[in-house]
User: Fold these one by one.
Assistant:
Number 1:
Amino acid sequence: MEVKFIQAKELKQKPQDETKLGFGQIFSDYMFIMRYTEGEGWHDAEIKAYEPFSISPAATVLHYAQEVFEGLKAYHCADGSTNLFRSTANFNRMNNSAKRLAMPEFDEAFANKALHELIAIEKDWIPKSEGTSLYIRPNYIGMNPYLGVREASEYIFYIICGPVGAYYSNGLAPTKILIEKEYTRSSQGGMGFAKTGGNYAASLIAGKEAHDKGCDQVLWLDSAQRKYVEEVGSMNIMFVIDDIIVTPPLDGTILPGITRDSVLTIAKSKGYKVQERMVSMDELIETAKSGAMSEAFGTGTAAVVSPIGEFVYGDERITVAGGKMGGKSLEFYNTLTEIQYGKTNDPFGWIEKV
Ligand SMILES: *Cc1c(COP(=O)(O)O)cnc(C)c1O
């Protein structure tokens, strides 16, 4: 299949002040889109103007949330080139998510090729200041105008992108995390491993209540016992306990983060001990209080590494790492961002040049 390019009638004004980009508010001139029809397969792949498209008020995605998405970034390098970071891993995960939602598979290599074409066209939209990037959002949705509860037979897959600011305006400020005792995000047999809007819908109320209590994010516990740590907000979580990097295993209820995998790989390459195992609330509280837990941090594409300074558990407040960013958190942040921005060589083969 060829990607057809349709010239936009006019191009937008690009943002002038890169310190005010924020996140997810500005979109570039073009988007990639392709359609799926049962019996016909994927067709009509196009790069065309970013603009609203029409959708039936009865469409599957609007009623039954048949949707999966991804999030990744393109980075401007000092030599003027553009880096994409592990995009094939994103499309592979997207197909795994799609399978869970009974959506047809797409050709990952083709999607990645289309992404390269889109980013090449939108190169001038990639901001250049420290910490900024072009955020890329692939989205895949069920389109049938039919209210029966079943998987759709028509879909669209599209990719939009837009410049985003440095996640940290005041350096890597440690976050305050509310340990969520009531709501859970996913359960065994559910869709916790899939990047799908439904998981986010289920999480919004907890996020809102955490913000109302002055916290930045929630820490999700397992749904069966509220005993084991799962994720933090929409990031994976890691601890440094007795100098070992510890993170919950990919047991089907948590998202297999690409940043998680990258940090674990970097940690091993630096000779650190790494354990993928369950961490109970008892262990978290005990080791945080005793100081055996020297660091805790979230990992995800948006923030890369987000240090945790404090856990709020009911009336208790437990400080981690003296409320500061720990040395290993900073080391992982620096190593990963240096690879992403092409400031150092990439020994892992993660970078694709556009
Ligand atoms: C996207 C996401 C992550 C982080 O994944 P990355 O690939 O590292 O960006 C973690 N948890 C949830 C729930 C997510 O949706």
Number 2:
Amino acid sequence: MKQYKYVLQERDMPTHWYNILADMQNPPPFYRHPATLALMEDPPMPPPVFPMELIQQEFSQERWIEIPDEVADVLKLWRPAPLFRAHRWEQALDTPARIYYKWEGVSPAGSHKPNTAVAQCYYAKREGLEGLATETGAGQWGSALSFAGNLFGLKVKVFMVAISFQQKPYRRVMMETWGGEVVPSPSTETHAGRAILEQDPESSGSLGIAISEALEYAMTHDGYKYSLGSVVNFVLLHQTVIGLESMKQMEMAGDYPDILIGCAGGGSNSAGLIFPFMRDKLTGAKPDLRAIFVESTACPSMTRGKYAYDWGDTAKTGPVAMMHTVGHSFMPAPVHAGGLRYHGMAPSICALIDQGYAEARAYHQVEIMDAAHSFARAEGTIVAPETAHAVRATMEEALACKESGESKVILFNASGHGHFDLAAYDAHHREELVDYCLEEERLQKAMAELPRIP
Ligand SMILES: *Cc1c(COP(=O)(O)O)cnc(C)c1O
């Protein structure tokens, strides 16, 4: 009899997060100071814009970090998340590959992002903070933090990129339903915002500007700190519940993945799935395990960028990290996968790619929406455009198995649902998806603005 899904009980939830830095022989190098570019050896990273406990996790060398009961209690609203075998899609693709996917779309906000939002709000509350400030592009991160903040009695201030604020009102409504306070960015509430508005009152905003506003707001309001939804070590750490659960579920299925796949904006959901399995590769237990991080050709940091130090934000106020980057000033095309429009990538993922432990791949949005369509018709689930990048890579690996006749085991992370992104599906049906191409000149110009390390 075919089994379609593998379900864990609440008592099977992981009790600890997995910290991959403990198992990397060559972990990513230290951050550098945003102004002086000097190496920031030893914590903490000044200024302390994050809750202290998170700064400690950022630099921790402990392999396992305990998940507080209060955090697990909230995660249990939707975790453990189900893992599916895509029997129908395998049939539709006529592939001998065995395809599995972990489904993170079951969270209240509809993606993996609450996994870290809950932990961040817990530590902020325990530190006695009144609220957290953050930025959001299309609204996925802002809604995850609003949801979590509400449960811990924290205020959440969200600077939402103005163009999304206007074009995607439903994510804003979601944030407000959970008590988040949302303002379009650039706003009149910060120096950074007012400076932009003086020059361009009609500015449609950018993630870089929104980050600068959220940082400034956090640093100028008593009882507030800043929150980030991807890229940094502690966010990836919190996301490892995805992979730790999946390991148990794959065991239930009697399979072990040959290939792991995830889409990567800042890298948190893919790292969440991949890192616990990657431990087996780092320790030599599974030397042939393949891991593929998938990005958008509109913002190809891993496949076209440089492996170099760069600022984490456009305004150059955040720390400088060694990563694959297309440059902090790069403005990507307005593709539907808003979560994949970040110029850099999580340093630990970049180190793994640089050292040959993992692969990177990029797709155009027409290709990824074709794949999402194929997946929806076979499995029913309508995935987010970001997730569709992982779906596309899975499809290509499954079709390669059809060519070779191999029955490989493929596991991908389905990071979120696409119910707020139906405009992307609509455009796909009408063949009206924006056809962009990467402008070589703009890419080179942005990469020429990388910091010169003294
Ligand atoms: C934000 C988002 C992403 C990209 O962020 P990562 O940190 O790379 O995971 C991917 N998928 C969904 C559904 C998202 O909301």
Number 3:
Amino acid sequence: MKLWTFLLVTLFATFVSAETHTWWFNTTWVDANPDGVFERKMIGFNNSWPLPTLRVKKGDRVQLYLINSFDTVNTTLHFHGLFQPGSNQMDGPPLVTQCPISSGEVFLYNFTVGDQVGSYWYHSHTSGQYGDGMRGVFIIDDDDFPYEYDEEVVLSLSEHYHQYSQDLMPSFLSRFNPTGAEPIIDNILFNETRNATWKVEPNKTYLLRIINTGRFVSQYLWIEDHDMTVVEVDGVYTQPNTTSMLYITIAQRYAVLIKTKNSTDQNYAFMNRVDDSMLDTIPKELQTNGTNYMVYNETLFNEAKPDQNYVDSLDDFLDDFYLVPYNNETLYDDADYTITLDVQMDNLGDGVNYAFFNNVSYVAPKVPTLHTVLSAGDAATNELVYGSNTNVFVLEGDEVVDIVLNNYDTGTHPFHLHGHTFQVIARGPAIPDDGSPLNYNASDHDEFPQYPMMRDTLYVRPQSYFVIRFKANNPGVWFFHCHIEWHLDQGLAVVLVENPRAIINDPNQQLTDNHKQICEKVGVPWQGNAAAHTENFLDLTGENVQVKRLPTGFTARGIVALVFSCVAGVLGLAAIAFYGMQDISDVEERVARDLDVDLDDQGVNEDNIERISETGSSLSKKSQF
Ligand SMILES: *[C@@H]1O[C@H](CO)[C@@H](O)[C@H](O)[C@H]1NC(C)=O
Ligand SMILES: *[C@@H]1O[C@H](CO)[C@@H](O)[C@H](O)[C@H]1NC(C)=O
Ligand SMILES: *[C@@H]1O[C@H](CO)[C@@H](O)[C@H](O)[C@H]1NC(C)=O
Ligand SMILES: *[C@@H]1O[C@H](CO)[C@@H](O)[C@H](O)[C@H]1NC(C)=O
Ligand SMILES: *[C@@H]1O[C@H](CO)[C@@H](O)[C@H](O)[C@H]1NC(C)=O
Ligand SMILES: *[C@@H]1O[C@H](CO)[C@@H](O)[C@H](O)[C@H]1NC(C)=O
Ligand SMILES: *[C@@H]1O[C@H](CO)[C@@H](O)[C@H](O)[C@H]1NC(C)=O
Ligand SMILES: *[C@@H]1O[C@H](CO)[C@@H](O)[C@H](O)[C@H]1NC(C)=O
Ligand SMILES: *[C@@H]1O[C@H](CO)[C@@H](O)[C@H](O)[C@H]1NC(C)=O
Ligand SMILES: *[C@@H]1O[C@H](CO)[C@@H](O)[C@H](O)[C@H]1NC(C)=O
Ligand SMILES: *[C@@H]1O[C@H](CO)[C@@H](O)[C@H](O)[C@H]1NC(C)=O
Ligand SMILES: *[C@@H]1O[C@H](CO)[C@@H](O)[C@H](O)[C@H]1NC(C)=O
Ligand SMILES: [Cu+2]
């Protein structure tokens, strides 16, 4: 009898605990002043910004209706870190798993939260919109949270630009920005503001969920005279590890326990600081440190705020490589399949600086890759149908996959894999700008950790490498990309087509009617190969491809350095004023013509190469590569 009651109660509990959350969100521009020094509009939902923190439990259903109320632009929403088992079409990246949602349309993100808990976030995956504010925190609460705490608090970090993404992007991806220098940030935010106040009570344990919702810079985080005990990283519980400082890249999450003091006679500085090594230039007026406040005593706080807290070194942050998952999950078996990706940044024939994985700069196909899978039949296992510029790798079901990433660039990059967490099995040290890049050596490496750290976003150090390992147990089309929005726009992405047959055969994975309508409205076919051919999937004529390369021996930096050196040096300042009144690209054309460089055909008079590279080096600025 007792057992029966128990079983019934358990069954009932399981049954009722799966809730359905229905949200309707209307994208709207909202007047805001996040950093307190500049009024601008931010993208909110229903005329409100910052966006709400969404809370669910595992197994719950989410029905989020996204109403695109932008005047003209498309949008999409990604739930960062969610596995989306059997619901790949709800993952969010446009032209990877869905058609863009055009202005005036409503898309229903309808999915069940998988077997996951912890700290996540959601953000637009379209056109830098999340940098304009379309981002929020997503928490999967856990009834069986393994650590004791009294109160839970979320904290988001990000950087802030005064200009809109749509204005920053064209000048970033321009031949007049040949080094690919990212726009310099105007501020860093702490919980979507600055100088923030966190009121705490004494003698308590807080669970602080820290989420970097930024699009560019990593941040250091520390609290005056308080330690933080890491217990979760990107939704993976860890064995506790106590530190005084965190380094958190964009898209990463850390949940930490913080024990408050027993006395209320003092308040403390809660510092965030930009990793300024990621900035090309550091303007004098940029506040690289943010001082926020952990307030125990408001009376005292109103009298005097704590001063900025200084640390001797920024190198003492917790190295996430050494964290151990709480469940002691051991290293997976050796890889069945190893994908090696070389990261480079370089200019193409149009003088614009692009980013490459294995010499391919990602260009979106004409048909979303998932839709190609669903319409390709037997051809779905053939990488060719996905196009030559999408960097697609087809994975077999349940195989163990290693991604070896060698970074030839001198910058730090946070890479994110959709649909999975991965084991972090190797990561090399930073190599200074004047050293040669350090590649991963499969026949000579440190022993892999027995219990590797698992997460979904991982940084690679400058001119170094990492190796990650995961099981291909989640059929779907999963984007793997640098989360720095600028670098994604430069093409730093690959697409993993995981177990295509299983996707095709799963009734849940078929496109919803709403999804097909969205495609029709935006004029994107929902069937066909990368070039939108439905008859012959191997016919790629008309596919989208990257800009052509410059001829060998000719550096694109040369071209633009040449333009600037000519304009500034040879023609003099008066010429800048003169040319400045005309379309600036005209200047380049005229200079190129004078020097016999054919920009359109990318042909070049060999005699000029020497001169061009000379001017290039004499003028070279600090660059990210
Ligand atoms: C947001 O706006 C939509 C559309 O008007 C409405 O249906 C919904 O109830 C609103 N949601 C909230 C949370 O206010
Ligand atoms: C969405 O917000 C805009 C701007 O406030 C408003 O004009 C529009 O009616 C809203 N749409 C819906 C469906 O509520
Ligand atoms: C933060 O403090 C600075 C300097 O004191 C001030 O200019 C700015 O407006 C403040 N920002 C906010 C959001 O309070
Ligand atoms: C919306 O997406 C479609 C299909 O990718 C594209 O052709 C169109 O230019 C996009 N609209 C805007 C305003 O970017
Ligand atoms: C969401 O998906 C589930 C499962 O396919 C379905 O039963 C439900 O009707 C969908 N919700 C809406 C509002 O269409
Ligand atoms: C950050 O903002 C959220 C939402 O407004 C709030 O609940 C939370 O307490 C804030 N966190 C801190 C550390 O102040
Ligand atoms: C606060 O007091 C409790 C017991 O009274 C003690 O266990 C704890 O260590 C103290 N905390 C601090 C930060 O001193
Ligand atoms: C701290 O809290 C514990 C129980 O939560 C209590 O026993 C203790 O007296 C408190 N200590 C102080 C200094 O408030
Ligand atoms: C807050 O600080 C003031 C000034 O130091 C002090 O007089 C007061 O007792 C403190 N209040 C509490 C609750 O500790
Ligand atoms: C920012 O913080 C770092 C670390 O405490 C410190 O070395 C540096 O001087 C601070 N910068 C400013 C402008 O206060
Ligand atoms: C904690 O992190 C440090 C590196 O920062 C590492 O050496 C140590 O092994 C870790 N300990 C645990 C229990 O995770
Ligand atoms: C993981 O291993 C540690 C010892 O390293 C042990 O204390 C802990 O109980 C283990 N956790 C689980 C969930 O097995
Ligand atoms: Cu990057």
Number 4:
Amino acid sequence: MPLRIDKKGTEESSQNEKAKSRLVLRVCLVILFLAILHIGSEQTGLKGFRGNALFPASTSSALVWKSSSSSSSSSSQQKEVILDLVDDEQEYIKWLVEEREKVSNVTEIKTPIKVLYRAMAGLGHQLLRLSSAYHLLTIYQIPLIWPTANPVCGGTIFTIYEHLIGKGPLFVDLPYLKEKNSYHMEIIALPLRFPKLEFVNETELSEEERQELVRGINLNNEIPGYSHAVGDVWDMDLPRFQEMDFYNKFQTDYQMYHQLMLLFEHKHRTKINEIHEKTRFSSHTVFALHIRTGNGETGDFEKKSRGIKNLEQWTETVIELLCDYRERNSPLFDKKPLMIFVGTDTGSIVPKLQNISSTLCQIPIVSADQAYPEEGKSVSFLQKYDNDEKCLQGWENMFMDMYFFTKANTVVTGSYSSFTQAAPMSFVMHRAKKNGMLNDNSHPHLFCELNRYGNRMDCFQDFENWLRRNAVKYFGNMSSPEQRIRQELPFPNWRIKSISINKLFAKTLLREPADSKKPSSSSTNRMTFQEWMALNEIATTNNTKNNMKKKKNA
Ligand SMILES: *[C@@H]1O[C@H](CO)[C@@H](O)[C@H](O)[C@H]1NC(C)=O
Ligand SMILES: *[C@@H]1O[C@H](CO)[C@@H](O)[C@H](O)[C@H]1NC(C)=O
Ligand SMILES: *[C@@H]1O[C@H](CO)[C@@H](O)[C@H](O)[C@H]1NC(C)=O
Ligand SMILES: *[C@@H]1O[C@H](CO)[C@@H](O)[C@H](O)[C@H]1NC(C)=O
Ligand SMILES: *[C@@H]1O[C@H](CO)[C@@H](O)[C@H](O)[C@H]1NC(C)=O
């Protein structure tokens, strides 16, 4: 995804310059703050090969966990812990299924705009972009989205998603969730360069405009205005995103993934129950381990060099690491022993892992026991299946893995992949909000990354620290390099040269209100970022000064 930074001296970029210089100051402060924190964490001494116990056996684990999480820079700890979206998931599923039947039954378009999202490439890639589309629709208040895919499994554009989650759209607006419905959550301001748009009354359009009116939008692959984090540029924008609470992106993501998983569960319940029972999933502390080797795949995969070079060596080192981890954190696995659920594109790796584990420390290793393709043929969107049934089965298997990843205690990613950064990460970070409250000796929820030698694991419990590469826990050989993972999680990204959201909605009922140039005073929900900055300039400057005083006094 090419990102260009506008270096031209346009009016806009000179505004950006001002914003940037303010930001640089803030970034410096944050770096200073993090540096202080870092010195603090250095004292725990993690040099050389030394398994670092999460919790020393001598102390109560809950206590240690609480004190360690309060020293993290996250502000989310202070916020009230958000309980799950619904009390009764089965009742919610029932509601979802019934409502979907109603809306997909209607042939005539009832909503002013019908949005179809056409997904491409692998499952992780698809869902991460679908999450952007979902977020865009909460911003502009479009209540439904129809996920589609290219007809790779024969059939129509709807075939894959109908097979996975049944017929019908996803709900962007979920009245069932009441005050937890992210569709109605206030956003502090629109992302920078996102236009302010409002629905107009159709009767007020001219005859000509009415004839040109567009009611259907096809979003293909990338979503205008959205992109993942990119190195230094991202670092500079991060404070701004924090200030904006990430435009509620984490909330809308979770709302979408949670819905997707429940719809999948509803449709594939028998198979899910079978796997649950066979693996004795719920009587274990499950670490979901994702291993993507590429399995003979070339092209995009090879370019990003995501494959693991020496698989044999790597798997052995990883099992050693996990054996050691379990040993040093044994009180946390007393009630529910550790089990590893493997999600992979290379089926043959599962018996290899099992074999190593049985010689080293007997951690049970399970998988969804899928019909993996033959060795050397990857589970990939590029794969040619000889029939549509098998093709759909391939997608179902990938989704099944993802489903069980969302049920795991901790997600461990073996190499860079958008798979783990979609639903699994959203779920584990959501659960991790409760880590500070765990007082039953259970293992905290973590998102962990193994490095390419398999001898070091860096773990995160919130998005902000993950984006900053500021791990809350590490384990293994700290002289070994950490995983240089690509952060694929998308956000509104004002540095994309062409935002083109205006173009996307051109000729629909969503239009720029006539008075959009004036700063809005009433509806903060639809204020643009520039307006918000203008209103907050004084307050922001004061805060910065105060923070600086605090730092000096400290
Ligand atoms: C609409 O859904 C109902 C069930 O709620 C079903 O009985 C009916 O046949 C559907 N109508 C169409 C046109 O599919
Ligand atoms: C649109 O405007 C017409 C006439 O001005 C009015 O009757 C109608 O209720 C309006 N529709 C909505 C959805 O506001
Ligand atoms: C398990 O490992 C042993 C020793 O490394 C090897 O001899 C045996 O063939 C392996 N078994 C399987 C099923 O891979
Ligand atoms: C730890 O990692 C470093 C760097 O990869 C390596 O040189 C060293 O041998 C490792 N130590 C152990 C005990 O494996
Ligand atoms: C900012 O600080 C100045 C003086 O330091 C003060 O006069 C002003 O009222 C403050 N503004 C706000 C919004 O707090």
